[in-house]
Amino acid sequence: MSMNRRDFLKVSAGTSGGLILAFTLPGCASIQTGYQSETGQWKPDAWLELNKDDTIRFTLAHVEMGQGTYTGLTTLIAEELEVDPSAIDPHFAPVAPEYRNPRFNLQLTGGSTSIASSWEPLRVAGASARQMLMMAAARVWQVDVKECSARDGKVIHPNGNESLRYGQLVELAAKETIRGDVKLKPRSEWKYIGKQNRRLDAREKSTGTAVYGIDVELPGMVYAVVSRPPRHGGKVQSFNGDHVRGLPGVLDVFEIERGVAIVADKYWRARKAQSALSVSWDFSDALDWSDDQVFDFYRAAADDDRGASERSEGNYDKAAKTSGKIIKAEYAQPFLAHVTMEPMNATVWYRGSSAEVWASTQAPDLARIAAARMTDLSPSDITVNTMFLGGGFGRRLTQDFVEEAAAISFHMRLPVKVIWSREEDIQHDLFRPAMLHRMAATMDDGRLTGWHHQIVGPKILTWFIRNAAPAQYPWAPKFMYNTLGKVGLLAEGIAVPKDMSAIEGAVGYPYNVANIDIRHTQTDPGVPITWWRSVGYSHNGFAVETFMDELAYEAGEDPYQFRRKLLASEPRHLAVLDRAAQLAAWDKPVPDGRARGIALFRSFDTYIAQVVEAGIENGAIRVYRVSASVDCGQVVNPRIIEDQIEGGILFGLSAALYGDIHFKNGEVQESNFHDYKVMSQYDRPEVAVDIVDSNETPTGIGEPGVPPVIPALGNALFALTGKRQRSLPLIADA
Amino acid sequence: MAFNLIVNGEERQLDVEGDTPLLWVIRDDLGLKGTKFGCGAGLCGACTVHLNGEPIRSCSTPVEMAAGQRVTTIEGLSDDGRLHPLQQAWIDQGVPQCGYCQSGQIMTAAHLLATNASPARDDIVAAMTGNLCRCGTYTRIVAAVESVAGTQASDQKEGA
Fold first, then answer.
1. CB contact, 8 Å: B105 with chain A?
2. Most buried among A97, A299, A365, A379, using CB within 10 Å?
3. Claim to verify: residue A240 and residue A98 sit in the same structural domain
4. CB of B148 within 8 Å of any CB in chain A?
5. 3-state secondary structure A702-733
């Protein structure tokens, strides 16, 4: 990421403008910086607050959903500020333009961007504050600032004996101005980056004291559940509200945009009353098909339209006409649910002229738009309190749960907490889209000469833009929200980033092949969809890396060596491939009844290769071992990287082995963990993670573990059984 | 209905419907938010508490079944205000990611160690397998339990 340190320092010095704003659309800075004499608090920028009592608060612009931002981002700022990360008190940011993710121009956490997008700005913020503290101390001592140093929250006098605590210097430091660039510490002097191994949130998460959205408690708070149409697009026709209103604890029953709300004094009373609620639904515009039709629908679309060209090299069509051999395969992947451990929930307190939202959300500014949409308030009247997230995986980028709580609080004029049951969480999820992939390749003399990939399915932005576009223009009047959404879609690729959700990972095909033709056929079956951990990479990974495996066997080559030969000009791909193969002892035999599969996939700018060792035990697929090598640039916290890779692997295996959302006449059939299974402690394979030591800028780590494990497992099963599985989930008796 | 529960060693009086799941009594009537709602069907273990020392799924246990009995939640796991050795191990091993399931994991592990001070790897896996974690912290959970039991096996995950 390019960034001008001098621009940033304008913010540090307390003047208007600055880097983060420079990335955003016109607006005004809302975070007051500078020194507050009443409180003895110095805010050099939007992130840091240093106090006279030596406490240091750090505002996290990114949410913590398990991926480790709470620790990782704090480590970045601590390193340059010269304090121990555990001495910093992190808290989650309010909605403000300063906290927007520059990659999206929205205040959201997703796309594995937290460390990558904060790497430079947060270190500069820490270094700037440290420099100003040192300048202040130098002025007190009347010494050259270059002779001073900083350590453990103190500035050290050139004589090495005297020191001043940061708390003693904040008032003076606020008056200093930095001219020129701030110098960041060289790698050799890092104390925490690459070494920090603890999680700063481990204690509260091990004692039950971490506060998630579902734990919010307010005076006079009431609870609500919502009955939503069982088929997407259904509408309320009528319901027996009078009957339900008379049940114990029930305060009101009424229709909201998303269904029928039941409000009670206690959650369980609302939930119990729901079983007595009977709603007649109007399904005239509702989803009505069953999932066995979706791939026929996709196939028809694919036959009809070969799709928009997303990457073209050489001339694939010509190669296909003249080639000695064409290999074709079609891959089908189902709808998938997120199933975060904390079911969707939100608390909203509408107070007439203002409102407050408490939510486990990945996108606080979208939550604010959602609440504005459902009330008579403007976004600027609404405060959002971001809580710890009990899992996100992309689900919490959509704010439907906030919309419900806002609509109900607006009606009740009371603080309201809405909690979804697990069944509702699964059945009213927005899913990873089902996708179809048509692959073809040409081979001449055992050499891969052409690669054709047609991706068939929907794009996600269409479903996401409704709140996202207004969030980028929060001062726009509410009647413009729908227009903004439409304009946002028209501006895709021009004013807003191109929607890569269907094609990411396919267009980045890394293998050296002369003729490449990658296309996307847009077709949308109308099922609500959203981002799902690793998004398009999740399905493109399976299609690309399974087909590569098929081609290796067609060429009569070892799947690892086959890939290797095509990666001569891709050193980072090649390095992780070699290291994963070595870690798994690829060239050594496996125990009887087991086999290995390999896959390599770059996502979120991170390179990762995995080898899966699997077998079939008692009629079920058993994954024994996964060996992964990852290159995510500079390591900030090696333990969190291991955790994210292992977690990504288990997330991918859950999808590979169990993930399958079925629709019957428009209704989701799965409902809870018994029929939507996820990996358990018993299912857990041994996971070995090798991390490449690198000086490159850090890249994503929350998602890249997911994509390669799915094809690697499928490839292992092929090696074991000789039967190629081209649809997911994988089965033992293919 | 009026009930008595002994929660974390303290006698508590309640007036709730008898079929209310213990989970919601603990969370909303007693205000102890460390015990989590995950599935409402006893399938995920996030709501695990001890009833008379035995782990139960509080989401599927009507409060009337617990009347007059001893309930221990994550908040009462260690009664002297210090950390339970498992909680310390959880911190040292950096087990939690999102952390939402961890109260339940720790309550299950605490019962395991209370009944089997030096469990083998298989015992740990068998005891813990009903507690789901969507972040995939299972390896660190096993390592943390083993570190308290003093049974770290030689086949521990590389890199851990």
1. no
2. A365
3. no
4. no
5. CCCCHHHHHHHHHHHHHHHHCCCCCECCCCCC
* pLDDT tens per residue across span A282-300: 999 999 999 889 999 999 9
| CB–CB contact B96 A201 (8 Å) | yes
Q: What is the pLDDT of residues B3-24, one digit of tens each?
A: 999 999 999 999 999 999 999 9
* Residue A616 within a domain: yes
Chain B residue with CA closest to A629: the answer is B159
Strand, coil or helix: what is A402?
helix
CA closest to A583 among chain B residues: B158
Q: Using CB atoms, which residue from B99, B158, B160 is nearest to A388?
A: B99
Q: Locate the chain B residue with the closest alpha carbon to A265.
A: B28
Q: Tokens in use for A41?
A: 């608090």
**Residue B36 to residue A341, Cβ atoms within 8 A:** yes
pLDDT in tens, A507-558: 999 999 999 999 999 999 999 999 999 999 999 999 999 999 999 999 999 9
Q: Which domain holds residue A109?
A: 5-204
Enumerate the CATH 3.10.20.30 domain ranges in chain B, comma separated: 2-76
The whole-model pTM stands at 0.95
User: B43, A674: Cβ pair inside 8 Å?
Assistant: yes
The answer to whether B24 faces chain A, any CB pair under 8 Å, is yes
Question: Which CATH class, in words, describes the domain spanning B85-149?
Answer: mainly alpha
Residue A399 lies in a domain: yes
DSSP, collapsed to helix, strand or coil, labels residue B67 as coil
CB spacing of A67 vs B97 below 8 angstroms = yes
CATH code of domain B2-76: 3.10.20.30
Return the HEC string of B32-62: CCCCCCCCCCCCCCCCEEEECCEEEEHHHCE
Q: At what angle do helices B102-115 and B85-92 cross, to 10 degrees?
A: 130
d(CA A108, CA A65): 12
CB contact under 8 A, B132 and A68: no
CB–CB of B157 and A686 under 8 A?
A: yes
A60 Cβ contact partners less than 8 Å away, ≥ 6 residues apart: A69, A70, A73, A74, A90, A91, A92, A93
Question: Directed axis angle between helix B102-115 and helix B121-128, to 10°?
Answer: 130
Chain A contact for B79 (CB, 8 A cutoff): no
